[in-house]
Amino acid sequence: MIDFSTRYLGLKLNGPIVVSSTPLSESLDNIRRMEDVGASAIVLTSLFEEQLALESRALDEDLSRGTESFAESLDYLPDQSDYRMTQEVYLEHLRRAKAAVKIPIIASLNGNTVGGWVRFAREMESAGADAIELNTYALATDSSQTSSEIELRVLELVEKVCQEVKVPVSVKLSQSFTSLPHLVARLQDAGARGVVLFNRFYQPDFDIETLEVRPTLHFSTPSELLPRLHWAAILYGHLNIDLAITGGVHSAEDVLKSIMAGANMTMMASALHIHGIEHIGRVLSDMQYWLEKREYTSLWETRGCLSRRSVPDTSPFDRGNYIKTLSSYSLRQTVAAF
Ligand SMILES: Cc1cc2nc3c(=O)[nH]c(=O)nc-3n(C[C@H](O)[C@H](O)[C@H](O)COP(=O)(O)O)c2cc1C
């Protein structure tokens, strides 16, 4: 029997597959099934900064009914119905999820500005969250905003959330930071215990008939795993911070590659939407078969073996890879031409 146990954010996990933030975990029945088939933790869907702002404005409105400013101040916020849960419903669901299973339940807070709403992290902790995942999804659309301003804002936010709670905090990052190793080192200084690589970048689609810009959500494919592997392999072993991979993890091979790159664990969302929650069990037994065949006794013997610091030739992670990849393509083209 292969030992799959691992640690993430100081929590003991019984395996390398965690359920990523997805509406699947809005049902307690699903949460129990996730535990039964081998999920080692569950990240709940996010509660959004905008949602908390909306609710606190609604409360202000109740307290000072008759003022004109409330409706105007809501103009820039999405409609209440755009959110899946109110804060009370979220906290109640968190309490019930905790009572329903033994595996860790990680609450998810999604926002990108420092504000009073970060206090909600404490309420998540009081409701029983074993950890908090902070999703800092933001896009730079203002040409006067510098990359260091954006990073500073993320760091301040992380610091504030870490000050609010005693439970560990991880940060779900976007892929587009100029110097990711430097940012991750500073996140560690700000109190983060882990980073989740990476948020997916949801681009809207254009409808050329109606001239509308529409939100789209496609499930991931395993090809999205490659940049995550690349960055986990670069970060592994340099810092005292845990690494989780989300994005493109669909099969046993994807989980094994992620651990070999240096991740503490992997997360799944799309694969569960496509194949069902039981997919976790199938992936774990495929991994078991693969590892036993090669006489491993524990998954962790493989951890980081393909990281940048473990391989003799680091060029695949650096500029060398770029040159080799491009020149190998033109060689093939030349051969085909003759
Ligand atoms: C339907 C759906 C809803 C999601 N909702 C959230 C969310 O509320 N908060 C969050 O941080 N990520 C959310 N995600 C992103 C996933 O947690 C995950 O990071 C992403 O889908 C990449 O993993 P995958 O390739 O396994 O899907 C959502 C994904 C899907 C498919």
Would you write up a description of this structure?
This protein has 338 residues and is of the alpha/beta class. It is 41% helix and 15% strand. Strands 3-12-11-8-7-6-5-4 form an 8-stranded parallel β-sheet. It has a two-stranded antiparallel sheet with strand order 1-2. It has a two-stranded antiparallel ribbon with strand order 9-10. Helix 6 runs parallel beside helix 7, helix 8 packs parallel to helix 9 and helix 9 packs across helix 11. The chain is globular and about 60 Å long. The N and C termini lie far apart (53 Å). Bound molecules: flavin mononucleotide. The site of flavin mononucleotide has 22 residues, from strand 4, strand 5 and helix 10.
Q: How is the biggest beta sheet arranged?
A: 8 strands, parallel
User: What is the string of SSEs from the N terminus onward?
Assistant: EEEHEHHHEHEHEHEEEHEHEHHH
User: Class, according to the CATH hierarchy?
Assistant: Alpha Beta
The low-confidence runs, each spanning 5 or more residues with pLDDT under 50, are 66-76
Bound compounds, each kind once, are:
flavin mononucleotide
The radius of gyration computed from the alpha-carbon positions, rounded to a whole number of angstroms, is 22 Å
Structural class: alpha/beta
So how many helices?
A: 12
First and last CA, distance? 53 Å
> What percentage of amino acids are in beta strands?
15-25%
CATH superfamily: Aldolase class I
- What is the general shape? globular
Oligomer: single chain
CATH topology: TIM Barrel
Any idea how many domains?
Answer: 1
**Overall pLDDT:** 89
